[in-house]
Amino acid sequence: MKKLISVLGLFASFFSPLHAQEVGRVISSVPVIQQVAVPRQVCTQQQVTTQPHKSGAGALMGAIAGGTVGHAIGRDGLGTAIGMFGGAILGDKIEGAPPPEVKNVQTCSTQNFYESRTVAYNVTYEYAGKQYMVQMPQDPGPSVRLQITPVVSSNSTYNYPPPPPLPAASAVPPPGSAPQSW
Fold it and tell me: What DSSP character marks residue 97?
């Protein structure tokens, strides 16, 4: 088991340069600032004065009292009706208007506020004696990790070996053919 681990360690150390990560030195990292709309709910308190409705108790009491007095004086339906009508008007005036009510009313609306936010970083870095620029989502710090990929030149001609022949489509003979010995 120890030999297997040491062989694997030797194998990994032998091939580790193939997986080495390249690093560029960051020269500058400039934040890209953008105005962003941020919706917020804004509520305000406002005092509203309302005039409440009369209860009607004064008119009712006046109508009852006026009807009783009118019936006592006139002893007929017309005197009662006139007494009720006059008593209702007089009772309503005596009740008077209730005092106005003041209420606090909350009104809310959604408003957009604009904030300055960093959306990316314009990074200038140096690698192999040359300077490069790239836009990154985060500030990379003092160095930036690079992935170097070989590119095939357009003026190079490569002779690839021909592809192997395709296998037979099926080992089953077509219908009506003689059996074959394999």
Answer: P
In this prediction the pTM is 0.40
H-only helix segments in 75-181: 77-95
Closest CA to 125 of 17, 22, 18: 22
The two tokens of residue 139 are 């500030």
Give 138's DSSP letter. Answer: S
Cα 39 to Cα 112: distance, rounded to the nearest angstrom: 4
DSSP helix/strand/coil, 132: strand
The overall longest dimension of the chain from CA atoms, in Å, is 138
- Give residue-wise pLDDT tens across range 100-149: 888 888 999 999 999 999 999 999 999 989 999 999 999 999 999 988 87
Q: Could you give the CA distance from residue 100 to residue 102 in angstroms, rounded to a whole number?
A: 7
